[in-house]
Design goal:
This protein is an alpha/beta fold. The chain folds into two domains: 261 residues, Rossmann fold, CATH 3.40.50; 301 residues, P-loop containing nucleotide triphosphate hydrolases (Rossmann fold), CATH 3.40.50.300. It is 32% helix and 24% strand. It contains 19 helices and 23 strands. Helix 13 runs parallel beside helix 15. The longest helix has 18 residues. It is globular, with a radius of gyration of 24 Å.
């Protein structure tokens, strides 16, 4: 398709096309295959990138976006059977062109992480679990900038501050498993920016982030571009982010480029049918589309499926020299809500606000510090033996990081079949295989893929496998923790339709943990907003999203990226310090009180006046 001329009256996007100036990166006829006799994963790809320019690469999961970035970084060297052809030329600081595909390994190591940095899609697979995050960032700084350890740690702290991690000086000493998914992704971003690269390859860098932190990270990347003249290749499925950050957009399908154009031209007049399909699949906040909202008018008619009352979770994080606890994370503080059979309650808030901790406590993966969880009227803390197993069957979890939640040594078919066998839902190998095939088809995969392993799938495909596994146990409540965040827009729309269809057919209830407010609007009946472990607003989706009353809810909504490059969102409310949930032992946060704004719509009073409880 190539670049087209701007539409009449259209300003030049960003810093312009790489073809107009000396290119920083030039990719020519790039093709990548894995193993003999296989088709190309990337097929004859061409593009160029100028200093300071942002190129967004979009396309469905499995279209070759991430493989392209791996080829540029020469990470395909470590993939068995990889065959990479074509040319990738990168301009070094002295002006010389380096052929990345033919450079010596020592040259690549000098470039990788220093001149070209990358942010990966799944932070838990990129961070070393046995080293603190501070040491991991400092290691890169020491290697490429020659600083001593103390100076490198100071720079690491500054980078954590820059990506808006609260209490950065103490986060330096924590390990990846002690951080939320969003905080781990911010650590990866800090690590990538720490060496001030000339080219940043960002592979779904904001997928795991809530909208406020995403908006701040996008702002940080733009600031780094202005300061360093840094170019960015931004791989994403979020067309709102594309509209906000990109100068040009390259659309890929089945490994090939189908369209490339300046961002405004692509959004106003997409040329290829597939591009039109992608744009039509983008959910817009404020667009009516919750097909099930009207069918849930009698929410109070039945007893609640799940009741959460005064739920609290605190974790010890600091000790003195005698081993006594000095500080705790107040992850969740006296949260109360109910979920009815067949209802979707969306739980939204910033990374670290307690969303995932609440989900894990309901699933009995984390022990509460206080409060009660009742499922069909029974206190889940008191369940034992068969009753506990039945509860675990009826409450299923779709985790945020699909790669970490799938056994790499088992085929995906075995992983999906595991709950069927564990709970003895079917007997006989053939019946189980038939059920696994049905589940794979329901989430948009092929039955023949059951014999493959997790590493053979893209990130979005792995998430679909996790959804199929959750459905296998015939649950009544699914806790979906960022369950569609790794999916491209077209597949995300299909999976959301699947969730709603299953809800209509089986009466499933969902606790939908997400940062995508357009997804919240589409799928949820009610919305609960969390801030620093406490509810600040809860009510019907139309009321909370259409008439937000708490300042924090308004802040969340103002941060939502808009899929329109001509609209400049107001982000004035996203500045200031992020409060930390860490408090000294004995110091507890004040508990929010609520006022009633409308039917079922409760808002935390920001003046501290007590009116009603949240439940």
């Amino acid at each position: 398709m190539g670049d087209g001329a701007p539409l009449p009256g259209e300003p030049t996007a960003g810093l312009g096309n790489a073809a107009d100036r000396e290119s920083l990166l030039s990719v020519t006829s790039l093709s990548v295959r894995f193993g003999r006799g296989t088709g190309p994963v990337v097929d004859g790809l061409d593009f160029a990138l100028a200093p300071g320019e942002t190129l967004a690469i979009v396309g469905e999961s499995g279209s070759g976006k991430s493989v392209t970035s791996h080829a540029i970084m020469r990470l395909t060297d470590y993939a068995p059977g990889a065959d990479v052809t074509g040319a990738i030329e990168f301009r070094r600081p002295d002006g010389s062109l380096q052929d990345m595909l033919r450079a010596a390994p020592d040259t690549i190591r000098a470039i990788r992480g220093n001149e070209i940095a990358m942010i990966f899609q799944e932070p838990m697979t990129s961070l070393n679990p046995v080293f603190s995050v501070g040491n991991q960032i400092a290691e890169a700084v020491m290697l490429h900038q020659g600083l001593d350890h103390a100076s490198a740690l100071r720079q690491a702290e500054a980078m954590l501050d820059q990506v808006r991690i609260p209490d950065a000086v103490h986060v330096l000493d924590r390990y990846p498993h002690q951080l939320s998914g969003g905080m781990r992704q911010r650590v990866m971003i800090a690590m990538a920016l720490s060496c001030r690269p000339r080219l940043l390859i960002a592979d779904e860098p904001t997928t795991a982030l809530d909208v406020t932190i995403q908006a701040q990270i996008l702002s940080i990347i733009r600031e780094q571009q202005r300061e360093l003249g840094m170019a960015v290749i931004f791989i994403t499925h979020d067309m709102g982010v594309v509209a906000e950050i990109a100068d040009r957009v390259l659309v890929m399908r089945a490994g090939a480029k189908v369209e490339e154009a300046p961002v405004r031209q692509l959004f106003r007049a997409p040329a290829h049918p597939y591009t039109k399909l992608l744009l039509n699949a983008v959910p817009h906040l404020g667009t009516p589309g919750n097909a099930l909202a009207g069918a849930f008018a009698d929410r109070k008619a039945a007893p609640p499926l799940c009741q959460v009352d005064g739920l609290t979770a605190r974790f010890d994080v600091r000790h003195d020299r005698l081993g006594r606890v000095t500080h705790r994370v107040h992850a969740v503080e006296e949260v109360s809500f109910e979920i009815q059979p067949g209802e979707t309650l969306a739980l939204v808030g910033e990374s670290g606000s307690g969303k995932t901790t609440i989900g894990r406590m309901i699933q009995q993966l984390t022990v509460p510090t206080g409060g009660k969880i009742r499922f069909r009227g029974k206190d889940v803390a008191e369940l034992r033996g068969p009753a506990q197993r039945a509860h675990l069957q009826k409450v299923q979890y779709v985790f945020q990081d699909p790669y970490a939640s799938l056994d790499p040594k088992r085929t995906v078919g075995d992983s999906i079949a595991e709950p069927i066998r564990t709970h003895r839902l079917l007997n006989g190998r053939r019946a189980i295989e038939t059920r696994v095939a049905e589940l794979l088809q329901r989430v948009g995969l092929e039955p023949g893929q059951a014999k493959r392993y997790p590493h053979e799938f893209s990130g979005g495909q792995r998430q679909r496998i996790c959804i199929a596994r959750a459905l296998a146990s015939e649950p009544e409540l699914i806790i979906a923790d960022e369950a569609v965040s790794a999916l491209d827009v077209s597949i995300r729309a299909q999976v959301l339709d699947l969730f709603m269809q299953l809800q209509a057919e089986r009466g499933l209830a969902y606790l939908f943990i997400t940062h995508d407010m357009a997804v919240v609007e589409r799928i949820s009946h009610r919305v609960a907003v969390l801030y620093l472990g406490q509810l600040v607003e809860i009510g019907p989706a139309a009321a909370v999203l259409g008439n937000p009353q708490h300042s924090y809810t308004r802040r969340l909504l103002s941060a939502v990226p808009v899929p329109d490059p001509d609209r400049v969102p107001d982000r004035s409310g996203l500045t200031g310090e992020i409060r930390s949930p860490v408090r000294p032992v004995g110091e507890t946060p004040p508990i929010a009180r609520f006022r009633r704004e409308g039917p079922g719509h409760l808002v935390a009073t920001e003046d501290g006046a007590a009116i009603v409880r949240a439940a």
